[in-house]
Amino acid sequence: MQRWKTEFGERLQTDASVHYWIKEEKWYLHGFIDDVTGKILALYFDTEETLMGYYNITKKVLLNYGIPKEILKDKRTYFEVQKKRSQIYILTP
């Protein structure tokens, strides 16, 4: 269970939302929001949910507000390194 936060910047939430924002085109709105105040800290539109979209909003947050104590994210793989399993081949004479 997560402890309640009481101060601005203690915990930020990030996610992207897909909608038909412009005519019949699908666009993704990446965003950061402060968990305590609900203040929107950064937004970025892109045609896909991408790591570059998250880089863009993260840069805006860091430059404008500094380093947050905690960031909540969804379970997308954009945020985690996926290590490939190496195969070991044993050569015998």
Automatic annotation (TrEMBL):
Q: Which domain of life is it from?
A: Bacteria
Q: Could you list the residue ranges forming a coiled coil in this record?
A: none
Q: Where are the transmembrane segments?
A: none
What SUPFAM superfamilies does its record include?
A: Ribonuclease H-like
For this entry, list what GO says about its biological process: DNA integration
Query: What positions does the domain Integrase catalytic occupy?
Result: 3-93
Molecular function in Gene Ontology: nucleic acid binding
Its signal peptide is none
- Which named protein is this? ISNCY family transposase
Q: Native species of this protein?
A: Spiroplasma gladiatoris
